[in-house]
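Appendix B. Raw example, untouched.
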Amino acid sequence: MFDDFDDPRLDRSVWLPHYLPAWSSLAETRATYLIHDSHLELSIPPDQGLWCPGEHTPPLRVSGLQTGNFSGPVGSAVGQQPFRPGLTVREQQEEFRGCLVEHGTVGMRASLYLSPRSMASLWLVGFEDEPERSGELCVMEVFGRDVEPEQALVGMGFHAFRDPRLAEDFERIPLPIDVTEPHAYEAHWDGDEATFRVDGRVVRMLDAPPRYPLQLMLAVFDFPEWPDERDPGHAFVPTLSVDRVWAT
């Protein structure tokens, strides 16, 4: 899969413009996005509502795309990336397999416009057709509070979740980059090893990555209860501007 967003319409054979809708609904998890000048822009305008209000702590808002989706029936616990024990499906989802990657290379070239209340990420998670196939391979994650003019902490690594075979191994790496400028973030993995790169330079290497199909997750988040003295009126619009995404 290679998407350079030259088409002004989102490729719905690959992308679902919602974020984990089983725990809410398609209507309430719709992403705010534009495609123009060969860029995808995911954003969170001031009037965008909370995601799963009253359920998720801390409160958050999100605009995200994902390349897979499914759930069990309403009232069941069968769904992707449950964020707390006892969570149940509120809207049953049709199975969608837009792009699942078992090994290879996944990356994006993107610019991030974040406040201390926001973050952006590209990550992969198990499709979770079996609960143990739930591990995460995070290509990149940046919080606005970790951004300086010429340096940022870029998170990458593994989150085990319900996968007993995957070791938790996640680290935020200080890199001399301005994240508002376009940078390439990429991970390559096979059955034995995962390599994480930024602008072609190896930043991390980890053993024993997930060994099952993973779907892409691409999102920008806002945490309205976090402090931001520069923007007390919440007028800032967090934006993830993506030039291209690839999965090979």
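End of appendix B.
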